[in-house]
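re: ur question from yesterday

yeah so i grabbed the chain u mentioned. its 254 aa long if i counted rite. heres the sequnce exactly as i have it in my notes:
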Amino acid sequence: MKAIVLGSGSAYATPQAGGYWGAAAAGNPKNRRTRASFLYSDGGFNLLIDAGPDIAWQLTDNAVARVDAVFFTHAHADHINGIPDLQRLAFNQKAPISVFCAPETLDGIRNSFGFMFSSRHNERGSDLLRWHTAEKSFEICGRKFEIFPLPHKHMNSYALKTGSFLYATDFDALPEDKAPFFEKLDCLVMETNNGFNFDAKGNGHNDFRDAFRIKERFGPKRMILTHLGIDIDYETDMRKMPDGIELAYDGMNL
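ran it thru and got these C-alpha cells back, copy pasting raw so excuse formatting
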C-alpha cells in the first residue's frame, strides 16, 4: 500500500480567505493546508477519498493523472465541491471513474449537484462517472473496502477500512459498536480539526485529546492526524505528540 495526503486542512483551509493564518506560522509550508482529501494506492489502483474544491490542484501537484474510484465520506462542501472536476479527469484519462458513497451521502450530493444527474447534462466526461451506493462495503478491482457511519454533529460521516488501514474523518464520537473497526490497525488516519482547542467540542469534530485516547485504547502502529484547523501549528504541536502520532501535511507520503 502507498498513500498520499492530498489535503490536510479543515473546511476553510489554512490560511483562511484573506490570508488569516491563526496560530499557524505562515513561513512553514507544512502549515499551508488545502481541504482534506486522501489517495489510497495499491498495485497501481488509485482510490480517491473525498474531492473538495482544491482537488484539481491537489492531483496536479502530486502528479496523479489517473483515479480508478472515489469514495465520499459525507456531503459537506469541503469534501464534495470538486465533483465537477472528476468528470473532466475521467475524460482526460479516457477511462471511467467508479464513485461510491452511502445512500444518504448521495442524497446530499444530488441536492448540491442536481444538474449533474440530469439527462440534459452533457459536459465532457459526465457519462464516465459511474455512481454506486454502498451501506457496509464495496468491491472494485478485486479489493474489498468496508465502510461504517460515525456521528458528525447532525449527520453521519462514513469511515473506510481495508485490511489494517482505516481512514476516519469528520466525526465527534466513537460509538461502542464501531470500536472493533479501530482494533489491530497498522495505520489510522483520523481527523482532529480542533487541535488543542478543547472548548470547540460540539462542532462535530475531534480534538487532540480524543486522538490520544484512541491511540492509548487501540494502539494503532501508526496514527496520522488530519483535517487540521488554523489553531494548529505544525512545528509547535508536533513536539507535543506522543510516540506513534504524526500531524499530516499536504503531499505527505505514507
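noticed a couple things. The first helix runs from residue 55 to 61. also Residues 2-253 form a domain with the Metallo-beta-lactamase; Chain A fold (CATH 3.60.15.10).
anyway ttyl
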